[in-house]
Amino acid sequence: MSAKASRISELWEGIDPRGWDVRYTAYFHHFNREDYYEAHDVLESLWLEGGRKARGGAFYQGLIQLAGAFVHMRKHYEHPDHQVHRQRLAPAFRLLGLTEQNLGGYGEEWEGIQTEVIYKLAKDMKSVLLSGDFTKNPWSPQRGPKLELPKRLN
Questions:
Q1: pLDDT, tens digit, for every residue of 37-59?
Q2: CA distance 87 to 18
Q3: CATH at residue 67
Q4: DSSP string of 31-76, one letter each residue
Q5: 65-94 mean pLDDT
Q6: What is the span of the domain harbouring residue 98?
Q7: Does the residue 61 lie in any domain?
Q8: CB 3.0–4.6 Å: which of 16, 67, 72, 128 could bond 88 by disulfide?
């Protein structure tokens, strides 16, 4: 096992899989803790293992892109004057658009979650970024969104 795979496997230790692949539920656990990079990595491992063309591949990709967008917004918030980080809102906007695109074909519910809630989150964040001409960051630690855990499979 590579060092990265070993590090990623630690990200789902102790997480209740709720009947799903533990990496899927670990995504929501880390996202809700505002550990967006970890959420991205843990779900990416599942997505890459299944293959990009696998059933639900675009759905997983959309969730990964959502976490990536929040990585950008968090870095911008933490370092707004940094030469690189101050430019992160436009890439966040682009990833939020890809989130919408990738989740668009999955109906109201998929894999135990209400997809329209996540779709609306991406759309609302894009709206704030665009209306602020990519200078107003909609994310802060006090306003980090929380995603519902997938419904338990039985």
A1: 999 999 999 999 988 788 899 99
A2: 38
A3: 1.10.3450
A4: HHTT-HHHHHHHHHHHHHHH-TTSTTHHHHHHHHHHHHHHHHHHHH
A5: 97
A6: 3-12+21-142
A7: yes
A8: 72
